[in-house]
Amino acid sequence: MTEEEKKAEKEIKKLRKLVAKHNQQYYLFAEPEISDYEYDQLLKRLTELENTYPRFKSKNSPTAVVGSDIRDTTRVIDHKVRMYSLDNAYSLEEVRNFLNRAFKSSAEDFLPVNLELKIDGFSINLLYEGGVLQYAATRGDGYKGEDVTNNVKKIASIPQTIDYEDRIEVRGEIFLPIKEFSRINREKEENNEKAFANPRNAAAGTIKIKDSSLVADRNLDSLLYAVGIFDNKEIKTQAELLNFLSTLGFKVSPYNEVAQSFAEIESYCKKWETRRSELDYEIDGVVIKINDLSRQKSLGFTDKNPRWAVAYKFKAEEKSTDLLAVRFRVGRTGAVTPVAILQPVYISGSTVSRATLHNEEEIARLDLHYGDRVTLIKSGDIIPKILRVETDYRKQNAERVLFPSSCPECQTPLTKERGGVIRYCNNINCPAQIKRRIEHFASRKAMDIEGLGEALIAKLLETGIIHKIEDIYHIDYQRVLSLEKQGERSVYNLKQAIENSLKQPFDRVLYALGIRYVGDKTAKIVTEQFPDIEKLKKAEIEDYLEVEEVGEKIAQSLYDFFHNEESLMTIKALQEAGLSFTGEKKEKSDKLKGKSFLITGTLSRYTREEAHNLIEANGGRTISSVSRNLDFLIVGENPGSKLKKAEGIPSVKILNEDDFNDLLGLKI
């Protein structure tokens, strides 16, 4: 293999991992971290590399697989006809090129196309038989989706029965109207709950919740525009299909048009790019489909996209406004993030008054000065971002924005990791970090203090009942009882949960301390090698590096934490409260040494955590996704999309529970 090929293979692996991560954030968690454009650029680069170096192609690559929203714990339903995703175009020239390829086999210069607004919602597949809704499923991985029938039945615009006896899959988008989105977020803010980032996230989160009554309360809506399984020879065009769906009682967009020329496409796209804020739902582009259904059929599909349709994505709207101030926010791990405070400006459907500046390097890149006129975009219509500074408007003697050298809350000197770009406050009792640290400390994977949630923690801090982590174990429960919404039963349960947390093992306590980069698995590994807090305190960086899976960043973070006076005081106070800071060095079996495992579906004999513990106790390790690094996939009931992916990798062995027990030498 040449150096060039090695470099390409390395970049391909990196891109696949990155795209897979963003697929998960978008489809599974409904919390995208980057814009559609940024995502598509990653995918485009990956496609280019795979085409240039075909030896590295894989049928499991994100370029060949549709992103999946399927969770392992849910019932899945097979689609009768596969659901595909659309190819994206970010300019009208790209649209023209796409259509030229689609028209290539036609004797005509231009084929009529149907123009539809691209709803920024959540894809759904509805199966009707005998005129009755049989089930509703999410798009999932394209081949199968999650069963969300009970929730979809709460959406008023989706009919339970239709006047059509044959079997038909009807497809479209579920969305949350903007007015409803605003109402729900206002209520969340009043209840001190985390608000939804945008209507699409809200719709995706709502359609999968267990409480169907909440779905009805949130007033989701729908627009339908396609079919899967459907055998009606009388319907010849996409326009006729939309009309047919409308006559059956489905809600269809009133803004669909048939274009007879590229000029009409251009006019429609430009019109809705400027008028989209007039709608009571989010759109992020225009879908252009060849109108003739027989032509659609003859063109077919690529691995993941139809060859007869493309989505023209709107450009991010830009607006100019004034920078009023920069605030430096301190997070749970002490990371200091600058936030721009802006003169409020309406952009892409909402009023924006702040934008993250990410880090010190971003401030330097923008050459930001107080009072600057800045150009703002909403990256992917989600996250406000400063694109550039309009230096022509800068006032003389304007003060440059400088990153502070000490914490804006507690004045502790800030540190920066070697080679890093983020500055940190390492004071564990910094007031800005306390609330978030306590939330982490009480969380399920840490001390598991049920009832000590965000709202109560905020109230306890506000009233001075607690001031720092260790105060949890000295709470005056009579004072808690006097707080609003705190009855005797809830306070008693809180007291019991706090007392029970004293029994948590050393690894859970270490994780609960919130040491940067130390997750629950790392905490378990570290405490097996250092089964006493005193040994952890005395260890040098080189000692930490000898622990399996501990790299330089984790080692440095552990060293810094255990050489910080505030951290040591907190540990001492927690020891005095009765928490365990010693453990047993467990001797591992080597039955599964060097082997990696992943579980999909529900196991009948073990919880997911119990199975993970068994694997680790026998020298194996668990990983989070299907890849060639996986040795065994353990399959329970209702397996998710991971099973299909694993079946495509010959080196992955698929086990049921009995196989797993045989591997361990257990007799059940």
How would you characterize the overall build of this protein?
By secondary structure, this protein is α+β, with helices and mostly antiparallel strands. The protein folds into five domains: 3-56, Helix hairpin bin (Helix Hairpins); 76-313, D-amino Acid Aminotransferase, Chain A, domain 1 (2-Layer Sandwich), CATH 3.30.470.30; 318-416, Nucleic acid-binding proteins (OB fold (Dihydrolipoamide Acetyltransferase, E2P)); 431-577, 5' to 3' exonuclease, C-terminal subdomain (DNA polymerase, domain 1); 596-664, Rossmann fold, CATH 3.40.50.10190. The chain contains 24 helices and 22 strands. It has a five-stranded mixed sheet with strand order 2-11-10-3-9, sandwiched between helices. Strands 14-13-12-15-16 form a five-stranded antiparallel sheet, covered by helices on one side. A four-stranded antiparallel sheet has the order 5-4-7-8. The relative contact order is 0.08. The model has no long low-confidence stretch (mean pLDDT 87).
Question: What is the compact description of this entry?
Answer:
This protein is about 35% helix and about 20% strand. The chain has about 675 residues and is α+β, with helices and mostly antiparallel strands. It has a five-stranded mixed beta sheet with strand order 2-11-10-3-9, sandwiched between helices. A five-stranded antiparallel beta sheet has the order 14-13-12-15-16, covered by helices on one side. Strands 5-4-7-8 form a four-stranded antiparallel beta sheet.
